[in-house]
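User: I've been trying to design a sequence by hand for this structure and keep getting stuck. Would you show me what you'd pick, starting by listing the structure so we're on the same page?

Assistant: Good idea, let's start from the same input. This is the structure you sent:
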């Protein structure tokens, strides 16, 4: 039992060290990691040395700062290529980004956040970084609202917590009454929109992806700067495009459309 407990603790500590590296802080000193995970310098240094020996972290020879290593990329690639949503959505998203020049994204729900599985940038929405693996709030994003369609109102309230919901800009929905009304419109037309709700100057249009059971399992979106996506002028066209893209991915996952139960005659 002592050995098992010690082994579990080592895994938990190693996991905490790896999670200390973030998009905002991708390169860290030993002292930075120690402060983040709450361990001593010597313990953290030993953990980093062990992780470095198996390529999970690497140390820059010039700055001596630690970064995530190539083994993390290998594992991420294996996980992505084993994910059926990623495999079905990848060619669809690539085509959208190529044809429209916008960003094409695919996300799933992880708890109260959306989790990016896929991010393809078109020529009008180029970034110097990838969104894959990043997270965003559900209530303030088009993809998040599409993902929320799979939950009942009481489930949404339990998941997102008490009002007011966090406001990222003056346009963010912060009440459940407004969110419910928006989701009703989304369910009616088949797609969701987000105009400067998460970040100023940005807009997005998304649609839910369903699996063979009809459950909402992902969302696919088009995003970009306000001037590039121009939702005020072409929302209807982009709405049809993103719904068709979502349908294509859903069909690849085995979705056959709504199940209609025949009404039995009473004799």
């Amino acid at each position: 039992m002592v050995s098992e407990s010690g082994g579990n603790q080592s895994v938990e500590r190693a996991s905490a060290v790896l999670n200390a590296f973030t998009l905002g802080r991708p390169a860290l000193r030993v002292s930075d990691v120690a402060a983040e995970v709450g361990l001593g310098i010597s313990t953290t240094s030993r953990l980093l040395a062990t992780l470095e020996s198996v390529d999970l972290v690497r140390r820059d020879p010039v700055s001596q700062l630690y970064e995530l290593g190539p083994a993390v990329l290998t594992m991420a690639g294996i996980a992505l290529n084993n994910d059926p949503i990623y495999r079905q959505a990848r060619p669809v998203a690539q085509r959208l980004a190529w044809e429209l020049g916008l960003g094409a994204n695919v996300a799933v729900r992880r708890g109260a956040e959306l989790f990016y599985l896929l991010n393809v940038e078109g020529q009008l929405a180029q970034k110097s970084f990838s969104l894959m693996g990043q997270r965003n709030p559900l209530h303030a994003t088009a993809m998040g609202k599409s993902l929320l369609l799979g939950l009942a109102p009481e489930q949404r309230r339990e998941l997102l917590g008490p009002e007011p919901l966090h406001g990222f800009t003056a346009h963010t929905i912060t009440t459940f009454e407004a969110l419910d009304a928006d989701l009703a419109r989304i369910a009616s037309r088949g797609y969701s929109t987000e105009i400067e709700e998460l970040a100023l100057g940005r807009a997005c249009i998304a649609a839910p992806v369903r699996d063979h059971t009809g459950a909402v399992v992902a969302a696919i979106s088009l995003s970009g700067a306000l001037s590039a996506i121009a939702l005020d002028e072409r929302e209807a066209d982009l709405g049809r495009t993103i719904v068709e893209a979502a349908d294509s991915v859903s069909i690849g996952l085995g979705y056959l459309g709504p199940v209609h139960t025949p009404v039995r005659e009473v004799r």
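That's my pick for every position. To get oriented when you compare it with your attempt: The chain has a mean pLDDT of 91. The chain has two domains: 2-69, 83-252.
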